[in-house]
Design brief:
This protein is an alpha/beta fold. Helix content is 29%, strand content 15%. The chain has a domain of 392 residues: 3-Layer(aba) Sandwich (Alkaline Phosphatase, subunit A). It contains 17 helices and 16 strands. Strand 14 and strand 15 form a beta hairpin. It starts with 10 loop residues before the first helix and ends in a 10-residue tail after the last helix. Bound molecules: 2-acetamido-2-deoxy-beta-D-glucopyranose (6 copies).
Length: 565
């Protein structure tokens, strides 16, 4: 586990090992796998075996489990931060997510991870969700550094019919700009996996690969307003009910099946990398874009237990999500990484891992934590982060004071405790890990053998200890934060107790930082639906409506542009 055999104890030898690795091999392949709306307790390494994720768990058990990984509270801002390394407030992408047919895009003068990796010689591919605008071709993934995109432009789609929208509705599965309608009826997770395997199999091995697989799982497949119309789609509902009969909530059973399918996809991707001898030189990152919407809009019965709050809130249940990293380049693995890490940090961290010079990247709010991850240490540590500033509902939050305290300035609709606790059976968990593809292929290329004892110890280490019993009573008096609240995340990770009155100086300091960023925030003008984007105008397909040849269908006969397909 701990240190790789070849580069062990002696520092000098390890320097030689690392530098020879750098000179002999191409730059590492960078594979990022993003889950949608998957909460803290929806992966099995966090303690619940209800939803079994042995492949994701194995990545972390052989790599690092990020215990303090923060995203934005909702998808669009999270994806903007992951693409650019900047806080969404700098881009006008803060707060509420992008709705259908809204002509907005990421500012074109901003650098992105795929643009900068391309400059280092990488081929760059995005599979799955985009959700950052598509009024013009240049606003889609290909306009921001990806060589190819196979997936959807809006926030989600039906798992089988690949459509989104109620009043305005249409197909949203695209291959670059070309709508794909002949895959109707095929399960989204399978389609994305198939494409990922295809890219890996055909990747010229001397080149470096940057592949982002941005899953639909575990988002609902339809526009929903309440829990009662949940649309969590699985291949066979009867079989799902039988398989997960130990879970009471039938929607959570479906979520379990959806997430297990995604986990299986992770195993297939690892297998494909291993079979092409690419795994030895890869970095694989997994994270969820925000906390689970346990109830309410797009309810998926996900669980952020034991954290407070859900998706869209500033509480940790909305923004502290599962994340793991695996790479043979990491030196001290099989452990928990305790440093504060923000989704924007992946940009400079992965750029640096690819051999890039951070100074070349341009402005970023992300912090290069590559050395921290490689050595599981906390130098050049992140100590503060902006959670977000929502200009519509006027809520915001900031974490600071050595990463210990969180200031919440006004809370949003949901602020209580929900989500399944699950149960745990370490032996079953271990058996699933051992037989997962990810574990099998990682054990093939390393000398690391996971033991039952290690998995139990890691699960204990990543477990969140909620407040001391003295605070439990306060937990019962759950109320929204109407003004300013302060939580001590170190002593009270479940945010039971507002300590604002006890620490006025910390409140003052964090308010100062937050207000400073409020002044810097790029305004977010309320741009609404553009009727010209109506899929009815384009063979019932969402299209890049502001381009002169936006609807490929209307232009097939005259100005057919092969390069754009
Ligand atoms: C697509 O599938 C979703 C989820 O099952 C369903 O709600 C929606 O009505 C379907 N749309 C079309 C156009 O068939
Ligand atoms: C769905 O699962 C049930 C129970 O396992 C099985 O009997 C049935 O044949 C399956 N249906 C389909 C269409 O595969
Ligand atoms: C948020 O603040 C703005 C500006 O002060 C105000 O116009 C708006 O009504 C507020 N929104 C809510 C939901 O309170
Ligand atoms: C949390 O709030 C929601 C919405 O107000 C409510 O339906 C639910 O019962 C509450 N749960 C708890 C545990 O208080
Ligand atoms: C809270 O947010 C409002 C804007 O909605 C801002 O005017 C106020 O200064 C903030 N308060 C603190 C303590 O940061
Ligand atoms: C229009 O969409 C249908 C499926 O909805 C598809 O069969 C047909 O090929 C599309 N037309 C064009 C020109 O792509």
């Amino acid at each position: 586990m701990k240190y790789s055999i070849a580069c062990s104890a002696v520092l000098l030898i390890s320097i030689i090992c690392i530098s020879s690795r750098l000179t002999n091999n191409p730059k590492p392949n960078i594979i990022c796998i993003i889950a949608d709306d998957v909460g803290w307790n929806d992966v099995s390494y966090h303690g619940s075996d209800q939803i079994s994720t042995p492949n994701i768990d194995s990545l972390g058990y052989h790599g690092l489990l990020l215990k303090r990984f923060y995203t934005q509270q909702v998808c669009t801002p999270s994806r903007a931060a992951f693409l650019t390394g900047q806080y969404p407030i700098r881009l006008g992408f803060q707060g509420y997510p992008l709705a259908l047919g809204v002509p907005k895009h990421i500012p074109k003068d901003v650098n992105t991870l795929p643009i900068s990796l391309k400059k280092l010689g990488y081929s760059t591919h995005l599979i799955g969700k985009w959700h950052l605008g598509y009024a013009k071709k240049e606003h889609t993934p290909l306009g921001y550094g990806y060589d190819t995109h196979f997936g959807y432009w809006n926030g989600f789609m039906g798992y089988f019919n690949h459509t989104i929208g109620a009043k305005y509705t249409g197909y949203d599965l695209h291959d670059n700009y070309q709508p794909i309608t002949n895959k109707n009826g095929q399960y989204a997770t399978d389609l994305f996996t198939e494409r990922a395997l295809d890219i890996i199999k055909n990747h010229p091995r001397q080149d470096s690969l940057h592949l982002v697989i941005s899953h639909l799982a575990g988002h609902t497949g339809k526009t929903l307003k309440t829990d009662h119309e949940s649309e969590l789609e699985v291949a066979n509902v009867t079989a799902t009910n039988e398989k997960y009969s130990f879970i009471k909530d039938t929607n959570r059973r479906k979520l379990a099946e959806i997430i297990e399918n995604m986990d299986k996809s992770v195993g297939d991707v690892v297998e494909a990398l291993a079979k092409r001898n690419m795994l030895e030189n890869s970095i694989i990152v997994f994270f969820s874009d925000n906390g689970a919407p346990t109830y309410g809009m797009h309810a998926n019965s996900g669980s952020n237990y034991p954290l407070r709050g859900i998706k869209m809130t500033m509480y940790d249940g909305g923004v502290r999500t599962p994340s793991v990293i695996y790479s043979p380049l990491l030196q001290r693995t099989g452990d928990v990484f305790n440093g504060l890490f923000h989704v924007s940090d992946w940009v400079p961290t992965l750029f640096r891992a690819a051999g890039g010079n951070i100074k070349d990247f341009g402005p970023t709010d992300g912090i290069d934590q590559w050395e921290n991850l490689v050595n599981n240490q906390m130098l050049n540590e992140r100590t503060e982060l902006l959670v977000d500033i929502d200009p519509k509902f006027n809520y915001s939050a900031y974490i600071g004071y050595n990463g210990r305290y969180k200031l919440i300035n006004h809370s949003y609709f949901s602020y209580n405790y929900t989500g399944d606790k699950g149960f745990t059976n370490p032996t079953i968990h271990y058996q699933r890990i051992k037989t997962s593809k990810t574990n099998i292929y990682i054990e093939k290329i390393t000398n690391d053998r996971l033991t039952l004892k290690q998995t139990i110890s890691l699960r204990n280490k990543v477990h969140l200890n909620c407040a001391p019993s003295a605070h439990e009573q306060e937990r019962d008096e759950i109320r929204p934060c109407d003004g300013v609240c302060l939580f001590d995340l170190k002593e009270d990770p479940c945010e039971y107790r507002n300590v604002a009155a006890e620490h006025p100086e910390i409140v003052e300091y964090l308010s100062f930082k937050l207000n400073h960023l409020m002044r810097e925030a790029k305004p977010k003008p309320p741009i609404g639906f553009d009727v010209r984007s109506d899929p009815k105008l384009c063979n019932n397909t969402w299209f890049n409506w502001l381009d002169h040849d936006g609807c490929w269908y209307n232009h097939l006969s005259n100005s057919f542009d092969n390069n754009s397909l």
